[in-house]
C-alpha cells in the first residue's frame, strides 16, 4: 500500500468512525447534520451514508418536515450490524458477554476458568461464538495481571500467561481485532460509564480479588498506566513495617481494615481522588464508615474521597464492552 493509499484509508476510517459515533449518540441524523457536526462536505457525508445504507449499516427512518425546501432524509445506525465480545478471565471462571453497538446484551454466559490452561482453550471459545454470530467484529479481554500493549508481563500464579502476547495470539487465530486490558483498569472504566462520572474527576477502584489486590485509577477520564504499565499494583505498597498491602490482608480482620484505611489515606495524600470504589462482595456499605474512620486518623476527613461499594463483575464487563465498542466503531470499511 502506498503512502497516498494509506493516508486515504486513514481518512476514511476517521470519517466512518465519526459518522457511527454521531448516529449512535444522537439516535439519528440527516446528511446535512452529519456534515455540520463532523465538519466534512455534504457530498462526502452523502457518499458515506449512502454506502452505509446499501450494506445495512445505516437505516432510513423517514424524512424531516419540510421547511420550504426539499425534505431531508433521516438515518439511524443499525446497532446489530456489528457485534463485540467481552471476556474476562478469573481463577475460577471465564465470563463473557456478546453485545451490539448500543451495548445491549445479545448473549451472556460463563464457564470454567482458563488461566491454568493453554490460551487455545480461550480461542476455541471465541471461534465457537464467532461461528454462531457472523457479525462478531471485536474481542475485548480482561485479565488479572499487568498488561502492556496486549502483552501480559505480570500475572501471579499463571505461568502459561506470563510474558505472553495474548492480543497477537487471539488476533492471529481468530482474525478479530482484539484489545487486552488489566481487570481493574476495565472495572474503573465500567464504573464511570455505569454511573455517568465521565466529567466528575478522578477515581480509584480497589479489588482484593482471588489473585491478590489490585487497583484501577482514572484521572480526567483517562486510565493512569504509569511509565511501565505498573500503576495500580497496590499489592506491593509497604503499608506496615515488615509487610506490604497484600501480606497485611492475610492478617486478622482488624489488620485488614486498618490496611485498607491506610491505603485510602495514602491515595488521598498523593492523588486526592473524588471517589474510592470497592467491590461490594468484599467491602459492604456497613464497612465503608469504619474504613473512612481509619483513613481519617491519618489525613483530615474533609480531603477524603467519597467511598462507594459497587458490583465488580458488572463494572468489569461494562468496561470491557466500552473498549470493545471503540474497536467496533474504528473498523475500516472493506
What does this structure look like?
The chain has 334 residues and is of the alpha/beta class. It contains ten helices and 16 strands. A five-stranded mixed beta sheet has the order 6-5-4-7-11, sandwiched between helices. α2 crosses α3, α6 packs across α10 and α8 crosses α9. The model has no long low-confidence stretch (mean pLDDT 91).
- Count all strands and give the number: 16
The helix tally amounts to 10
- Indicate the low-confidence ranges by residue numbers: none
Average pLDDT for all residues = 91
Topology:
Layout: H1 3-26, E1 29-30, H2 31-38, H3 42-54, E2 58-63, E3 73-77, E4 83-89, E5 93-99, E6 105-112, H4 120-132, E7 136-143, E8 146-148, E9 151-154, E10 164-165, H5 166-174, E11 178-182, H6 183-195, E12 203-207, E13 214-219, E14 222-223, H7 245-248, H8 253-270, E15 275-279, H9 285-296, E16 306-310, H10 312-329
Parallel strand pairs: 4-7, 7-11, 12-15, 15-16
Antiparallel strand pairs: 1-3, 2-3, 4-5, 5-6, 8-9, 9-10, 12-13, 13-14
Helix pairs in contact: 2-3, 6-10, 8-9
Amino acid at each position: 500500500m502506498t503512502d497516498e493509499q494509506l493516508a486515504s484509508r486513514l481518512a476514511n476510517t476517521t470519517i466512518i468512525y465519526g459518522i457511527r459515533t454521531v448516529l449512535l449518540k444522537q439516535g439519528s441524523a440527516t446528511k446535512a447534520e452529519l456534515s455540520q457536526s463532523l465538519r466534512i462536505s455534504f457530498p462526502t457525508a452523502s457518499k458515506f451514508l449512502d454506502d452505509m445504507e446499501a450494506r445495512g449499516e445505516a437505516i432510513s427512518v423517514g424524512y424531516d418536515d419540510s421547511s420550504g425546501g426539499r425534505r431531508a432524509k433521516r438515518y439511524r445506525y443499525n446497532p446489530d450490524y456489528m457485534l463485540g465480545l467481552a471476556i474476562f478471565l478469573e481463577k475460577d471462571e471465564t465470563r463473557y458477554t456478546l453485545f451490539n453497538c448500543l451495548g445491549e446484551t445479545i448473549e451472556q454466559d460463563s464457564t470454567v476458568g482458563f488461566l491454568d490452561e493453554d490460551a487455545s482453550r480461550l480461542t476455541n471459545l471465541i471461534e465457537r461464538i464467532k461461528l454462531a454470530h457472523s457479525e462478531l467484529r471485536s474481542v475485548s479481554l480482561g485479565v488479572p495481571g499487568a498488561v502492556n500493549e496486549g502483552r501480559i508481563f505480570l500475572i501471579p500464579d499463571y505461568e502459561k500467561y506470563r510474558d505472553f502476547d495474548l492480543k497477537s495470539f487471539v488476533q492471529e487465530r481468530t482474525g478479530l481485532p482484539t484489545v487486552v486490558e488489566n481487570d481493574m483498569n476495565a472495572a474503573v472504566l465500567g464504573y464511570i460509564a455505569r454511573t455517568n462520572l465521565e466529567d466528575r474527576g478522578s477515581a480509584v477502584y480497589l479489588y482484593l480479588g482471588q489473585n491478590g489486590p489490585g487497583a484501577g485509577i482514572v484521572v480526567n477520564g483517562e486510565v493512569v498506566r504509569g511509565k511501565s504499565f505498573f500503576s495500580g499494583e497496590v499489592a506491593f505498597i509497604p503499608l506496615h513495617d515488615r509487610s506490604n498491602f497484600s501480606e497485611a490482608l492475610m492478617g486478622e480482620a482488624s489488620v485488614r481494615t486498618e490496611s485498607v484505611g491506610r491505603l485510602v489515606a495514602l491515595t488521598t495524600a498523593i492523588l486526592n481522588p473524588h471517589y474510592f470504589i470497592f467491590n461490594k462482595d468484599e467491602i459492604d456499605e456497613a464497612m465503608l464508615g469504619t474504613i473512612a474512620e481509619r483513613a481519617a486518623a491519618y489525613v483530615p476527613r474533609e480531603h477524603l474521597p467519597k467511598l462507594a461499594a459497587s458490583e465488580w463483575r458488572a463494572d468489569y464487563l461494562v468496561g470491557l464492552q466500552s473498549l470493545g465498542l471503540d474497536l467496533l466503531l474504528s473498523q475500516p470499511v472493506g
